[in-house]
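Batch manifest line 483
LIGAND: nicotinamide-adenine-dinucleotide
JOB: complex structure
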Amino acid sequence: MSDFIKDGLARNYLAGAWVEGDDGASIAVEDPGNQQHVADCAKAGEATLAKALDAARASFDRGDLADLNPSARGRLMIRIAQEIRAIAPEGAQLLCRESGKALSAAHDEFEEAAQYFEYYGGVADKIEGKSIPLGPDYVDYTVFEPYGVSAQIVPWNFPVSIAARSLAPSMAAGNATIVKSPELDPIALALLGTALERAEVPAGAVSILNGIGADLGARLAASSEVDQIVFTGSVATGQHILRSAADNVVPSLMELGGKSAAVAFEDADLETLISSLKSGIFYNAGQVCSAMARVLVHRSIYDQAVERAAELANGLRVGHGLDEPEHTPLVSAQQLERVEALTSTARQDGARVAAGGARLDRAGYFMAPTILADVDPASRVAQEEIFGPVTCFTPFDTEAEAIAMANGTEFGLVAGIFTRDLTRAHRVARKLRAGQVFVNEWFAGGISTPFGGVGKSGFGREKGLEALYNYVRTKNIAISLKG
Ligand code: NAD
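JOB STATUS: finished
ARTIFACT:
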């Protein structure tokens, strides 16, 4: 058995060993479904980070991953996938309790994490350069090289699968990686270190550190020992990290927030729209960057759509994640406070509350599933990311109006189109300002489909082959044959 947790303390995975935090410091982790203590997590600070950076640099300089035969690197990653599946039952329980999500959703995160390692393991030996014709006197070709030490900062909404989403391509490319877990739910991600340990990942090639964002996260992002920064989280933190990246002139990948809109035309299938809404805004209590945060509906079917959405919201079974409910709590008291406060501005701004609108009166941090109707597209609830189970309905009359509204925020992560007219679907998809467009199914796609933002939703792409090229840089080698 792994030493990952000892005396109720989940530890940091550093250079192949399990270590405590700086000066024995720890973070108390709470179950948002019942406000009970789950466990403590060892808190890494400056000293632990320095050790992880040294270990990562040494591992990279030794060529632990980069100089491994690429197909052997791929096999190592497939083995990690197998080990992730082996720890999934234990991990899902921990993740369910620390994050509040449903047990099946927690299990899905581990499964998805395993799939990322399989997918990128399969391409580790296919990161091919090209040859460039320069005439008979030259041979010219490109090779892809890893950056070196990749710093990866992970949010709390999908800590395990998002960590795997970045770690797997980073390893496939041959980087050494330091992952900073989110302080609200770090335990299941720390457990992932067990899968790395059992798969015999070279010591130092990956470390997983638990710590506070403003301390450990900021130090990691500002370190001159880091060669690349991958950040998934809020816009404000992303901007902070980008300032550090600018100081060190380090490439970065930013996966930030969203305020994504579904556009339902008059010929949309209402059943399809409502079932997409169920996962689109209520999965993980709406704490999803690509949530269906706005629903723009053609006026001819608008009232019916709002009524069906309200019925859905009012009928969701609420409960603790272990009881496999349809609606789970928000991750923290602070998050509930924020979601409720922002939702309450909707009424003052002229919106109608068709369902929910406030917290639920029960233990845990539950916000009622909320449908806001007749939302002014310029109002705060239509413009700011709520990151909770709250969506905003607004009617439209013309295609052009719908596109303008969908594109009318500072974000651009995903968008959706609901119509039976495929010509219109293609036409509108091209005009929507988003990194990914779903047609007739919110969250269509998977680990192999590129994902990322436009505008303040960030830049760079995760998932799919596309993502791999965020983790390498191109070197050109030009050889004269003249001599
Ligand atoms: P957050 O920005 O508060 O925190 C994200 C991570 O950054 C955490 O690990 C945190 O500890 C760390 N952090 C906080 N302050 C830091 C600092 N000053 N320097 C370095 N690191 C710091 O975000 P969150 O509340 O954890 O997550 C919610 C946000 O993440 C939402 O805006 C959501 O849309 C976004 N998100 C985006 C994606 C995507 O793929 N685009 C996926 C999930 C979440």
